[in-house]
Amino acid sequence: MKYNKLVIDRPFEFEAGGRLDHLEMVYYTSDRPYRPGETVVWICHALTGNANPEDWWPQLVGKGKTFDPDKYFIVCAAMLCSPYGATGPASVNPATGRPYFFDFPRTTVRDIVAAEILVRKHLGIERIDMMLGPSIGGFQALEWVIMEPEVVRDVVFLATATRVNPFMTAFNESQRMALEADPTFRAAADLTGGSAGLACARSIALISYRTYAGYNLTQAEPDEDTLFADRAASYQRYQGQKLLRRDFDAYSYWYLTYALDSMNVGRGRGGVEAALSRIQANCMMISIESDVLFPPSHGRATVAALKHAAYREIRSEFGHDGFLIENDQLTAILQPLLEKY
How many CB atoms lie within 10 A of CB 223? Predict the structure, then answer.
């Protein structure tokens, strides 16, 4: 897929207050110009993903795969506050010549979608045939089909919800506490600040993405006579360091956790059901049976409140992260939706 950057030199207003006069959005598309009238698939990425879905969803996106960029015009834009190309707290503040750090406006899911809509308009896309997103990508998709109900034809919400739940917010706050416990985080001398806290935060998050059964399957001690269990501990530390090696910074992560906590499609719209009633797209909700962040009970309740909605459920031992693992099941669900285009 092709790397692109959109520079926006006009005021961008944030829902929680504040504005920027300059915004940059990195996005990837199929490796050709958009041809009006062709089938458009828009993918919204998850929390620590990036704008290139071939990178983080390689089993589903790529030549000859379910989402083939030669067959469809595929678009994926970086979220505001992502360290991978969109403007955020790690970006240079033109007023100071240093990163924004904590001077960046607090960002909501609606802000993220508003910036992505600017990319859509820049590309000249008037109709998105299929939109899908997992996790916070699903948050974006839900907000988008409410904000622009006439634009999206079919939408797939994957392992997501209409609003953040207290259980998820508790995990988010625990991660922010880990960041705050690192004295280099508030010092904000450079973008390495809070690195130790970020590794810890990632470890906390990972527990919410997985399950008891999943850890037992993959992280059991190989020696039944081991004195101190270590394998799962080593895995947690590895995952924390892995995120640091991917050049994710603590400030982007901190802001993105608050974006997660902003999710509530009913805010200012008369409640969740009233907001969902605005949706015109054909909807499908896919839940994962072992997902503790977005359990199937919520997915089924959302479908009951939606028009033109279908529900599917994926079996997995690996919880929320099943959307990255259970590729055969996902393909079996998604392929028939694409065949009509």
Answer: 8
Range of the domain at 114: 2-163+264-338
Question: Structure tokens of 75?
Answer: 């678009």
Instruction: Report the C-alpha gap between 50 and 45 in whole angstroms.
Output: 6
Sign of the dihedral through C-alpha 217, 136, 44, 179: negative
- pLDDT tens track for 315-336: 999 999 999 999 999 999 999 9
Q: What is the pLDDT of residue 228?
A: 96
**Residue linked to tokens 């690195």:** 195
- State the Cα–Cα distance between residues 193 and 170, nearest whole angstrom: 23
DSSP per residue over 114-166, as a string? HHHHHHHHHHT---EEEEEEETHHHHHHHHHHHHSTTTEEEEEEES--SB--H
pTM, entire model? 0.96
Last residue of a domain, one of 216, 240, 260: 260
- With DSSP H G I counted as helix, E B as strand and the rest as coil, what are the percentages for the chain, rounded to 5? 40, 20, 40
Domain termination residue (choose one: 203, 230, 260)? 260
Please list the active-site residues.
Answer: 135, 291, 320
What is the rounded CA–CA span in Å between residue 149 and residue 238? 42
Closest CA to 188 of 89, 106, 81: 89
Angle at 52 between CA 324 and CA 338, to 5 degrees: 65
Q: What angle do CA 23, 28, 33 make, to 5 degrees?
A: 105
> pLDDT tens digits, residue range 44-66?
999 999 999 999 999 999 999 99
Q: Are residues 120 and 253 in the same domain?
A: no
Could you give the C-alpha distances from 35 to 44, 68, 105, 126, 149, in angstroms and in order? Answer: 21, 16, 36, 11, 22
Dihedrals phi, psi of 13, to nearest 5 degrees: -95, 135
